[in-house]
Amino acid sequence: MAEEVAVDYTLSNPDTLTKYKTAAQISHKVLEAVSGWCVEGAKVLSICQRGDKLLNEEIAKVYKGKKITKGISHPTTVSPSSYITPYTPLSTDADEAAITLNLKEPVKVQLGAQIDGLGTIVCDTVLVKAEEDPDGEITGRDADLLLATYYANELLLRLMIPPGLLASGSEEDKKKAAAEKRPTQAKISQLLETVVKSYDCSIVEGTTSWLFERNEIEGKKKFVLNPPDKEGRAEGVPEVGDVWGVEMGVSLGAGKVKTIDQRPTLHRRTTITYQLKRPSSRQTLSEIVKKFGNFPFSLRQLDDERAAKVGVVECVRSNVLRQYEVVTDKDNAPVARLLTTIAITKNGLVRLGAPPALDVSKCKSDKKITDEQILKILEQPTARSTGAKGKSKKKKKKPAKKATEEEDEEESSEDE
């Protein structure tokens, strides 16, 4: 029998990046559809169910006949205005199943797909509109919230790039740039707070970005913004070859959080093994391992939702499963969140799974960023131009007033 060849799952293997990009394309397509379903009066449960159905349909179309795992890396969740964590109600909880969306509330849509254990997750914040109502101008505090979140996210993504990676000039200049100290977590938090305070907003307490690995969305590295006292340490630094899930959470209030008395419905398998005593617990865990591996899932995705609600109790108590508590803004202030899956390559940052760029021309606010250091960082590219595609020169816009995703798309074909 021939020996199995170990598969290289690093970004140096072009197949790895292809799988990530395939998963990202599915995530983008479904995110666009789900965002369009977020209209006044729509039921959150129905949107989540439709989103998962579409995810499964799109995933089934790729890598047919290949002996690789594929599936949902994060179920469709729709978090109402002041909700911070991903929210997905159950059909067997009547009160939550009846929750509907209110006009103009900011809802957070999060979902993702995985190919061969290589997952992309994306989250966007959309304002609920009336059905068949065309998108118009966004004004007042709604505009403040979206602009603060967008620019804070753009700043954080640039600060994730290793020093000197995109430096130009002589070899000496490049070495000098590479030798520069990385900004500390405190410095980064300070810069981000300056951005959001420009719009009278706050960073959500404990907003965390994680290293993504194969079959793992909470890897060995993490970065915490506005950290709670006990969990405030960053672990590791972003490096070439890394894939990260970069999160930005912004509140119109003080950014403090609270856990509410509501059934957690989102869970994830841990690495802990334990001999479960109840047959129902063992049956539930077996289904979870087979369907979801180590990726997050909703109890509504299991075959028997009522049985699953019972079966996960012992699993959570014995730490075989982690449950995601339902967390909201402490003052019930509206919250926006973005989550971007990025790859850091030798040519810079590639946005694998990313929310669509905010159309800042539609956001009318009387507030703006004035800090020169921040404006200078926001003007910096996130990837090196490889010259693969010709670009017509465009007129320069005002600092911090343009979308940046185009840069990443143009460089992504030559990132390996």
Overview features:
disordered C terminus, 16 strands, 416 residues, globular, alpha+beta, six-stranded antiparallel beta sheet
Brief overview:
This protein is of the alpha+beta class.
Describe the structure.
31% of the residues lie in helices and 21% in strands. It has 10 helices and 16 strands. The chain has helices at 14-37, 44-60, 94-97, 140-159, 171-178, 185-197, 279-292, 305-317, 372-378, 405-411; strands at residues 70-79, 106-115, 118-127, 138-139, 202-203, 207-212, 222-225, 243-251, 257-259, 266-269, 297-298, 321-324, 327-329, 335-345, 348-353, 363-364. The strands form 5 sheets. Strands 5, 6, 7, 8, 14 and 15 form a 6-stranded antiparallel beta sheet that branches. α7 (279-292) packs across α8 (305-317). The model is unreliable at 389-398, 401-407 and 409-414 (pLDDT under 50).
What helical percentage do the residues reach? 25-40%
Q: Which stretches are low in confidence, meaning pLDDT under 50 for 5 or more residues running? A: 389-398, 401-407, 409-414
Largest sheet: 6 strands, antiparallel
Question: Looking at the structure, what is the overall shape?
Answer: globular
Number of strands: 16
Total count of helical runs of at least 4 residues: 10
User: N-to-C terminal Cα separation, in Å?
Assistant: 33 Å
Order of SSEs, N→C? Answer: HHEHEEEHHHEEEEEEHEHEEEEEHH
Radius of gyration: 21 Å
Q: Could you tell me the strand content as a percent range?
A: 15-25%
**Whole-number mean pLDDT:** 90
Q: Helix/strand/pairing class, anyone?
A: alpha+beta
